[in-house]
Amino acid sequence: MTLSRGLAVASFLPLLSLPPVAEPSRYWFDDPKTAVEVTTRILATGAPSTYQVVTISIPDGLPRRGEGRVEIFPRKGFNILGTHAWSLPALDGKNKVIGIIGIPASARAGLVTAADVNFSVAGAPMITVAIEIDVSLIRELAVRMQSAPLRVRAGGQVTFSYELVNTGNSTESIETSVAAPKGWKANQRSGSHASVDPDQSAQRQVVVSVPPGVSTGSFFLQLDVLDKGVIRSSIPVAMEIVDGLSRQASAGPEITIAVGRAGNATGRTSTITTATVRGPLFDSVRVDARFSVGESDVSAHNQLLSRIGSYKMLPSLALTAPIGRVAFGAAGNSFSDLTGLYAYGRGVELDAHRPGWHLIGLGAMSNSSASAGKSQPLLGIRGDVDVGPVRMMSSFSHLRGGEQSGRQLDATSFGATVSAGFATTVEGEVARRSFAGGNGTGWSTEIARVDSRNNARVRITHAPGGSEAFARAVDEVIAGISQIVTKRLSFSGSAWRLSDATAVFSRLRSSGWAIRPEYRVHSSTTVAIEAHATVAGAMIAAGHVSAPSGYGSAERQVGVNVNTNVGQLYASGSVAGGYATRTVAANRSLSEQKSPKITWNTMGSWRGAQTTIELQGRMEETRDAGGAVTRPSQISIRGSRILSGSQSRGVSADLELQQIRGFSARPVNIVRAGITVPVAGTLAIKLLAERNPLFTASPGSSPWTYAFRVEHSTRVPMMRPPGTSGVVYRDLNGNQRRDEGEPGLDGAVVKRGPEMAITDANGRYHLGGDGRLPIVLDEGSLPLGIARQTVGSPNIGVGSSLNADIRFFVAARSDLEAIDVDLSGIRAVARDSAGREWVARMTGATVASFDALPPGTYTLELDLSGLSEPLVPRVPLPVLHVTPFEPSYVTVVLDPRPLRMWKASSSPQNPTR
Amino acid sequence: MIARVFFGLALLSMIACLQPTDTGVSSVSLAGRWQYSATEAGASARTLNGTLVISQQSGASFQGTLSVSSTNTETGETQSLAGTVSGSAPKAGAIDFDVSLEQLPRRHVGQLVGETLTGTWLRLSEQGVAATGAFSARRLRD
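^ inputs. structure came back:
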C-alpha cells in the first residue's frame, strides 16, 4: 500500500520539478565555430523513497554517428529505474530522453548529486551533465525510553535514560527540559541541548532527586523536546516512590494494652484490663497473644464492656507460620465426626501441614469449675497422608469434658478419601468409640461433588454415644446441594435427619428440608423463594426433672426474599407465612397448638464515606388455637459518623436506637451512644453509654450504664529482622562473584512475591516475604545498558551488556570453486549456564551479532534450515566467551553438504562417488 | 408467581390483623422476677445464670425478658446475653416458652412446682438440634 502510494506520487512529481537554473558550458565537436552551449547540470526535487522522472536534453549539434551513447551513472545510494543508456544514432530526430531516478530513504535533505549523464561520441570530447536533486526535508525525531515505572525511595536519587533517535533526513538541533513535582530536582547530565544527525541517536541521562518526606505512590515527570521554543514532543515519565525497606521489615507485632471500666448510677463498677500482642514476630511467623485481668458479674456491665472490646479473655499464645499453627493456653480442635468435635480446654493445640500430609493435635485439660467439676484431659491427634491418589487418615482421641459434664470419648479411627473423577470425592471412616454408657463401632461416609458451578454433598454418620461423646448426634443424614443453573438462576437445597440421646433427653429426633431458588433480576438485585419444613421431637430422660415427658415442634413456612444494592444503598426484605405446631406431652396427655405464623424482616442501610445509617425491622405474628394473637416486633436505627480524621485514626461517633414491642406492657426502648477519640498517636479513648431495660433486674427500672476504654497501642520491631539481606553490585570483570572494588548499585528494585525492596547507596537491600520464593531483580529499575549478569541470589551482579559476533566462513566445496550463499537466513542462539537464550541478528553478509550479552560463557546453537544452499556447521561449535576486556567473537565454518553422485548404472545402495 | 406469593402473604397478614386478641385465663401467676439458671450440654457446654422477668401475663400467654451470663464450662469464657421471653401455659400443665437470646429461640418446657420452675430446653437450627439443656427458675421475692 505504502509502495503504490509512493509510486503514484512519483509519477506526478517530475512534472512539477522543472530545473530552475543551469549554468551553461560551451562545447564544440567538429568545428569550434559550431560550438554549442550545454547545461552542466539538471535539477529536480523529490522526497526520499520516491522515484523522480528527469528530462535529459541532448545537446544540439551532438553528432549522431558511430557508437555515440547517452548513459546515466547513478551516484551511491541512487538507482536508475528502467533504461539508463541510449545509442545516439537511435535517437536521431530526438532532442531529449527520460530517466527515472530512485532517491534512497537515507538521502539527506538538500541539493545532492544523484547521477551523472555522459554524452559520448567517438572522436569528440565527452560531455558530462550532473543530475542534482533537491531532496525534501523530512523531520522525524523519536524519543525512546523504558516503559516500566522508575522506582526510588523518598529522599533518594534515580537516574533515567532516554534516547533521541533521528529518523529524518536532516540534523536536528533541539532542547530538552524535564518538569518535576515541586521540591524535586531534575538534572540533565548532558545538558539541555542536543544535536542529532540523521540516522543517528543520542543517549541522554537525567538524575532526579526526590525530597525526603514524599509519600509512597506514583508520580509523573514531564520530558519535553523543544525546537526553537516550540514543544515538538512531550512524554510523561512514571516514577514510583517505594518504601526504603521491605514493607514487612518495619511491621513488627502491635502491643495493645487497654483498661475498660463500666458502671452505673448506683456506683457499682466493673473493670477489665486486657493486653494483646498481634503481628509478625519474625520472618513468616505471626504471633497472637492475649491476656485479661478482672471480670464482672453484672450482665449489663459485661455486655457494654464487650461492645467496646474489653472482655474476659483466656490467656493464650498462638504462633502461625506457613507450615502451620501452634497455640498455648486456650486450645481446641476437632478431629473427625467419629473421634471428636469441638474439644476445647487449656493446653496446646497443633496444626501442621506440608504437601502430602497434615497433622493436627490437642493436649489440654478441661476447665475446672463448680458446675463442670474437676478438670480432665483432652487428648487427640489426627494424621492425614497422601498415598498416590488416596488420602489416608487415622485419628486417636481421649476426651473428657469435665468431671460433671458427662461428655467423654475414647476413639480410634481409620479412613480414606479418594477422588472418583468428575470433581467427585468419596470419603469413609470407621472408628471404635467408647463412651460413658458403653461402646460401639461408628462409621461415616460422604460423597461430594464440587466444581465451579455445583456443590453437592451427602453425608451419613453413625456415632454411638452421640453428642454426649463429642459427636453431633448418634445418627445423622445430611444432604445439600448448591447449583448455578443459569447466569441468573441458582438453587440451593438441603435435607437432614438426625437422632440423638443426651443426659436430659432419652430421644431427640429432628428432620427437615429447605429449598431456596434465587433469581438475579438485575446485577444488584436478587429475588429468592424460601421454603422450609422442620420437625423435632424430644423425649425427656426418665428420672429427670419436670413433669412433661416430651415435646415437639414442627414448622412449615414459605416466603420471598428480595435483596438490592444500588450505589451506597443496600436494602433487604423478606416475608414468610406458614404454620408452627408445638406439642407437649405431660401427665399422660398431649396438647397441641397449631398456629399460623407470619414473619416479616426488612433492613436498609446507606454507607457514605463518613457516615453510615442502618435501619432494621422485624415482626413475627402467631395466633394460638383460641385466636389469641402475639405480635412481637423490633425496629432499630443505627448511625455512625467519622467526625474528623480518617476511618482508622479519626474521631467517630455511634448512635443506636432500638424498640422492642410485644414483651411487656410498654415498649422496650434501648438507647446506645458512643464516641471514639484518638488522643495521641498511639492512645485512644472509647466512651459508650447505654440504657437497656433487657438487662434490668427490676421491672420498670432502666438505669443508664456507661463504659469507657483507654487503649494504648504500640508497634515494636520484630525479634530478628525478617527476610534476606543481599547486595546488587557491578560485576565489572564478569566473573559472576563480587570482588573487591566492585561497587554496589543504588536504586535497584528486588522483589519476592508481594514484597519489594530497593537498594541503598551501597547496593544493599533487605527483603521479607516467604523465604521459599526466589528473589527477582526488576531489570526495569536498572540504568540503560545494564543487565543482570549473575544467577541466583541474594548477591546479584549486574553489568554493562556487551556485543558479540559470530563470523561465518563458508568453506569451498572440494574440487569446486567457493560457493556464494546468502546467509541472512541463519538463526543463531547463545545460551548461558542458566539456560537463558539470546538471539543474534545478521548485521552483515557473514556476521551475526548479539547486541546485549552479559559477560559470561555461552554455548551456541545454529539453525541453518532457512538457507537456500544446504550448509552444515563444522563441529564442535566454538564456545562464545564474552568479557569486557577484549572483543568477543567466534568464527564458525560452514561446510557445504557433501554431494553424492552415482553412475547411471549404479544403485543408491552401491553408490560410487 | 412472585406477585401471587406477595398477594397471598399480604392477605394472610390482613386476616390475622382483623382477629381479636384473646386474653384467655391462666391458672397460675407467673409475673415477677425469677432467678434463672440453665445448663447447655453437647459441643459447647455452658452454664447460664441470670434473671427472668415476666412482665405481663394475659390468660395463658405471658411475656417478659431474660438476661444471663453464659460461661463456657470447658474454657471459662463468659459472655452476657439478654433477650425476650414469650410463652404460654398449655392445658397439659406444662409451662412452654421461647427465649430469644440468639437469632434462633430456645424453647423451654417445664413445670411449676411451688415457687420453682424446672424443665428442659432445646434450640432448633435450620439443620437440626443446635443445643439442648436443662433449666430451673426460682421466684424472687422483692
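Chain B touches chain A through 79 residues (CB under 8 Å). The two ends of chain B are 57 Å apart (CA to CA).
thumbs up if we can close this ticket
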